[in-house]
Amino acid sequence: MAPHQDLPAPSEGSVDSEGESEVDREGGGEELPVSRRFIRDLISEALAPLKKDLTDIRRDMRQIADRVEELETQQDKVTCHSIAVAHSLDRAQAHINQLYNLSEDQDNRGRRNNLRFKGLPESVSTEDLRGAILEICNMLLGPEHGLDLTMDRVHRALRPLPKPGDPPRDIICRLLNFQSKEKILQAARNKKSIAFGDTELFLFQDLSPITLQKRRILKPLLVKLRDLNITYKWLHPFGLFINAPSRKLVVRSQADLSIVYDTLDLVDLGIPDWNAATDLTDLPELPSPAPWIPASKSTEGRGKRKAGRNTPKKPTFRDEDT
Length: 322
Known about the structure:
It contains 7 helices and 8 strands, in the order H-E-H-E-E-H-E-E-H-H-E-E-E-H-H. It is α+β, with helices and mostly antiparallel strands and 322 residues long. The chain has a 5-stranded antiparallel beta sheet with strand order 2-3-1-5-4. It is elongated and about 140 Å long. The relative contact order is 0.13. Residues 1-5, 7-28 and 300-322 have low confidence and may be disordered.
């Protein structure tokens, strides 16, 4: 072990335990003494803007946390509100479609004694319409039918006079006796064709335009049913009865088509929804969130803080402690 050596005694210019720095050498032009307290003040002055900014950041973070919690609560309320609105719209849509269907059915009930003749030339004048229709009905029923063929009114469809070459307007005939109308319609169905002079006529039940539009929408399905030799008939209120080999089917809404496709092993025919109300998008106004003001701008004058350097000025050296 090396022999113990005494440490040299501190010189007069060395730093003591209280943080004294070395004195300048005489005539050396060295830096003036800087105390430990001055260094602490210097660091505190440099960190003061950072501490102030960190305080604002902490305040903003606390406000953001509160705001996020408030937004989550509000989002839950908005979601519940949206679900309730969607359910209400579904019920309203069902009620609207029900009202439309009832109105359509009422229109068809008002037309149940009506017959619609297609193909009668425009050359038959309005005065001769009643006699021409009566002649056609007697031809269909036979000479000894014995039915009451009293007609309440006979007129052409209410639309403009067709141009030359266009199909003639339909003839609408209303009979007072419903059974007579049914007998005429049945006799027309049993005939392959109806001729009036040199013109071929077609005889149909008079229906509401809404019902006719729905039947046109279902035409792709009717073509498939004919190809499969499956019988069907129309229902009132609007519907389609299908006499499928495995089971009897009834189509009254868009949802019933999927059952028909599965039962008859058909691909989706892309038939659109024929209901009057299918998409209600007029939603009520949802509550809007309140604007968020950052904490750094919530205090008056905070946003107008004077711009200054974050670093302190060059220190002024002194000879003694403060």
